[in-house]
Amino acid sequence: MLEGIVRDSMTKQETKSLRRDGYLIANIYGKGLENINAAFKMNEFIKTLKAKETLSFDVSVGGNTFKVVVQEYQKCPITSDLVHVDLMVAQPGVRTTYKVPVKAEGTPIGLKNKGLFIFHKKRVPVKTTLENLPESFTLNIDNLDTGDNILIRDLDLPEGVECFLDPRVPIVGVIKAK
C-alpha cells in the first residue's frame, strides 16, 4: 500500500520544498468526499503504479485508506518528470467516469507499405461502476493497412460499461508517411 502525507500548507514555497525533497504533489477527491491535498514519495508512487495489477490501487493518507484511480497527471515539459497527479476515489456501486488504457497487439500490415502506426487515444473515457471496470482494451492491429483506423464503435464494451465519445472517433490507426 502506498503511504502519503497530508499537505497542510498550499503555498508555492511549501510545494517547491516538498518537490525538492522528492515528493509528488497529489489531490485526492471523490463523490461526496472532501478534497484531500496530499504528497507521496515520487519513487514509491512510480513503483506502486508499475506493480499494480488492477486500474485501482490503495493509498493511505492521514490515517485513512482509499481505493483510488489515476484520473489525470502533469509532467514537466523539459524533464518529463511527474509534477502533479489527480487521484479519484473509486467508490463501489457509484457510476462515474474512468479512463481505461488502450493496448495494441500485433504488427500492422501498413508498416511494410511505408505507413506510421499512431495512437489517437491512449486512454478511452468510459462511464461505469468499479465492479464492471475493465483493466484495459486490447486491440488486434495485425490487419491495419495504410489509412485504416480502429474506431470507438469497434470496441467490445463489457456489460454495464458505456463510452460517451462519438462512435466515429479513431483510437489507433496507420497513416501514410510523407
UniProtKB/TrEMBL annotation:
<keyword id="KW-0689">Ribosomal protein</keyword>
<dbReference type="InterPro" id="IPR020056">
    <property type="entry name" value="Rbsml_bL25/Gln-tRNA_synth_N"/>
</dbReference>
<dbReference type="InterPro" id="IPR020057">
    <property type="entry name" value="Ribosomal_bL25_b-dom"/>
</dbReference>
<dbReference type="InterPro" id="IPR020930">
    <property type="entry name" value="Ribosomal_uL5_bac-type"/>
</dbReference>
<dbReference type="Pfam" id="PF14693">
    <property type="entry name" value="Ribosomal_TL5_C"/>
</dbReference>
<dbReference type="InterPro" id="IPR011035">
    <property type="entry name" value="Ribosomal_bL25/Gln-tRNA_synth"/>
</dbReference>
<feature type="domain" description="Large ribosomal subunit protein bL25 L25">
    <location>
        <begin position="2"/>
        <end position="87"/>
    </location>
</feature>
<dbReference type="Pfam" id="PF01386">
    <property type="entry name" value="Ribosomal_L25p"/>
</dbReference>
<keyword id="KW-0694">RNA-binding</keyword>
<dbReference type="GO" id="GO:0022625">
    <property type="term" value="C:cytosolic large ribosomal subunit"/>
</dbReference>
<dbReference type="InterPro" id="IPR037121">
    <property type="entry name" value="Ribosomal_bL25_C"/>
</dbReference>
<protein>
    <recommendedName>
        <fullName>Large ribosomal subunit protein bL25</fullName>
    </recommendedName>
</protein>
<comment type="similarity">
    <text>Belongs to the bacterial ribosomal protein bL25 family. CTC subfamily.</text>
</comment>
<keyword id="KW-0687">Ribonucleoprotein</keyword>
<dbReference type="GO" id="GO:0003735">
    <property type="term" value="F:structural constituent of ribosome"/>
</dbReference>
<dbReference type="InterPro" id="IPR029751">
    <property type="entry name" value="Ribosomal_L25_dom"/>
</dbReference>
<dbReference type="GO" id="GO:0006412">
    <property type="term" value="P:translation"/>
</dbReference>
<dbReference type="InterPro" id="IPR001021">
    <property type="entry name" value="Ribosomal_bL25_long"/>
</dbReference>
<feature type="domain" description="Large ribosomal subunit protein bL25 beta">
    <location>
        <begin position="97"/>
        <end position="177"/>
    </location>
</feature>
<dbReference type="GO" id="GO:0008097">
    <property type="term" value="F:5S rRNA binding"/>
</dbReference>
<comment type="function">
    <text>This is one of the proteins that binds to the 5S RNA in the ribosome where it forms part of the central protuberance.</text>
</comment>
<comment type="subunit">
    <text>Part of the 50S ribosomal subunit; part of the 5S rRNA/L5/L18/L25 subcomplex. Contacts the 5S rRNA. Binds to the 5S rRNA independently of L5 and L18.</text>
</comment>
<keyword id="KW-0699">rRNA-binding</keyword>
